Request: fold
Amino acid sequence: MHAPVGGLTQAEMNNAVAIIEAGQQMNLPSRAFVVAIATALQESHLQVLANPNVPASLKLPNEGVGTDHDSVGLFQQRPSWGPVAQLMDPHQSARLFYAALVKVNGWEQLAVTVAAQTVQVSAFPDAYAKWQSLSEQIVNAVV
Reply:
């Protein structure tokens, strides 16, 4: 278990570690972990969020409830990303995020916020930038 950094709770740190582990299992570079963690910080502050608009999510382990459309989990992924059980699982939702990230041409050279936005298509495309420093701190503490 990794001690929390940057003001995170232990649960949030554990979710960050799960994101990193999923990326390591996919043999991705640490830059991918930074992009993924910045995304999850913006989308859910590293909390697995259920959503009343997705009733099945409320029956799965969660750390709170969000109400953004039908988005669930760490990355606030919508049903088109996969089954609710996958979206609510930190490892599996991270793998889905990484699978989309590596399809982005030249993602390794893109700014963190641009790479994250290309995957997420958020209504707030610049919001990921504010999480880059904390994301790097988390990755450095774990890797």
